[in-house]
Design goal:
Blueprint: E1 2-7, H1 18-26, E2 32-37, E3 51-56, H2 58-71, E4 74-79, H3 85-90, H4 96-105, E5 107-116, E6 119-121, E7 124-128, H5 129-140, H6 144-156, E8 162-168, E9 171-177, E10 179-183, E11 187-189, E12 192-193, E13 205-210, H7 218-226, E14 236-241, E15 243-247, E16 252-255, E17 258-261, E18 266-279
Parallel strand pairs: 1-2, 1-3, 3-4, 4-18
Antiparallel strand pairs: 5-6, 5-18, 7-10, 7-16, 8-9, 8-15, 10-13, 11-12, 13-14, 15-18, 16-17
Length: about 280
């Protein structure tokens, strides 16, 4: 086996240069491995590597996972981001020693991936409030849970519900929404789950339509997102589908937490078990 570690110095609150040395010490001498900055990754020749390892958050994982998907290589993750939604969902520890142990002694499984208008994602894509937060989060350059909280509070008051039209495997629905999530994995990050029923190997995507909560409902909403028991209620409606068409959702979206602009009608499609990924035994 040969490992390529792809690190992102902008992931999380602060990248520690000592992390590269720590990983180097933990890796057995019998295994070949190299490191590359994500800024150089797109032009880096990965032909000789069996495993591509993302060191960073969900955005870094997205970039590395897309390359692993295209080149039929195996994805590994050392989570070092602000939310680490996919890693938490897959049970990968945020402790570096434990994450390396998973890379060396874990198992390889095939997980689903998805595309929205040709953009690859592996965890969650979304529109509405959550996309607005992602755009502001990226523009302001804040990091960490407190950074997210600050942006969420700033964004909440000024946004109202809109009407969205969704076609789920050929069945059209129009409904009000405040935030819309297309979930392959279960959580946004920081152990806030948006779709506890999500199964990343079932060939389906979970759709969570959220109404705008009233101020007195916010504490209950936080508890709900931490409960790992998401189900239909006054604020949330859930669906599952393989193919999704979306109209009137607005142009601001996020893909695995990274802000993107999507102007036309959006088409989302899942690719079942299309990415090999290392997870704990």
């Amino acid at each position: 086996m040969k490992f390529l570690f792809v690190y992102n110095k902008k992931a999380g609150k602060k990248f520690e240069d000592a992390l590269i040395e720590q990983i180097s010490v933990l890796m057995p001498q019998s295994i070949d491995f190299l490191f590359v900055d994500i800024q150089d990754f797109n032009t880096y020749d990965t032909t000789s590597f069996d495993n591509l390892i993302a060191i960073g958050g969900d955005g870094t994982v997205n970039t590395v996972a897309q390359r692993a998907h295209i080149e039929a290589k195996t994805l590994g993750v050392i989570p070092k981001g602000s939310g680490d939604g996919l890693a938490r969902f897959l049970g990968i520890s945020r402790n570096t020693n434990a994450a390396i142990d998973t890379l060396l002694h874990g198992k390889s499984i095939a997980i689903d991936t998805a595309h929205i208008d040709g953009l690859f994602f592996v965890n969650v894509a979304g529109a509405g409030f959550e996309a607005e937060v992602a755009h502001k989060f990226g523009a302001e350059g804040v990091r960490g849970l407190m950074g997210y909280a600050k942006v969420i509070i700033e964004s909440f008051g000024g946004r109202e519900e809109q009407k969205v039209t969704i076609t789920l495997d050929g069945k059209k629905k129009t409904m009000p929404f405040f935030s819309l999530s297309i979930a392959n994995g279960a959580q946004w990050g920081n152990n806030f789950e948006i779709a506890s029923a999500a199964n990343i190997q079932d060939g389906l995507l979970d759709i969570a339509i959220m109404r705008k909560p009233k101020w007195h409902e916010i504490l209950g909403l936080i508890t709900f997102l931490r409960s790992k028991k998401q189900e239909n209620n006054r604020l949330f409606t859930y669906y599952k589908a393989e193919e999704i068409d979306i109209k009137k959702s607005g142009k601001h979206w996020h893909v695995d937490g990274e802000p993107v602009i999507l102007k036309r009608k959006k088409r989302v499609k899942v690719k079942p078990k299309s990415l090999k990924t290392i997870v704990p035994q």
